[in-house]
Amino acid sequence: MLSALVVAGVLAADASGADASQRALAMELVRLVTPETSYRSGVHEMTAQMVPSLEAQARATGTALPPDFIQRFETVLLEVVPYDEQSSWAADVYARNFTASELKDLIAFYKTALGQKLATRLPTIMGEVGKRVSDILPQRLPAALKKHGLIPQGAGGQPQPAKQSSPPTKQL
User: Fold this and answer.
1) Higher pLDDT, 154 or 155
2) pLDDT range class, residue 155, cuts 50, 70, 90
3) Is 142 within the bounds of a domain?
4) Structural domain harbouring 85
5) Residue from 23, 17, 5, 31 nearest 107 by CA
6) Distance from C-alpha of 76 to C-alpha of 71, rounded to nearest angstrom
7) How many domains is the chain built from?
């Protein structure tokens, strides 16, 4: 979820192509798609996925996470990327990518029972998918990197630095 928030922030430099009414529609949509409770739920899901890795890092350095780490970490994330700020970034992105008519259609959908169900369940769905991806990557990525030559193997089976190309020769 945080990666989605970061991407939304990076993409949302400004809504220069949208007028004030289109921006208002976009903000209405954002509040429907990601109500603050869903945003907080997404932060919680992301934190739950990160904690095992953070615990392992702490153990490797001979320390332990404090018992209230999860709660404090979530507080920090919500402070670093507050809901209102993230919502503003997202509204800028929606306003640039959808016409006023399309925004109205999306708002109408998210006001339906199915739209509300999607809005409330999406953080959990994204969390489950993200966890699956993070579980699979360590299993599949090394072989794929080797297959595509991104981890060259030496005679001893150890990765070696990529070959340096010779400097260009001077042609006369």
Assistant:
1) 154
2) very low
3) no
4) 2-7+18-134
5) 31
6) 9
7) 1
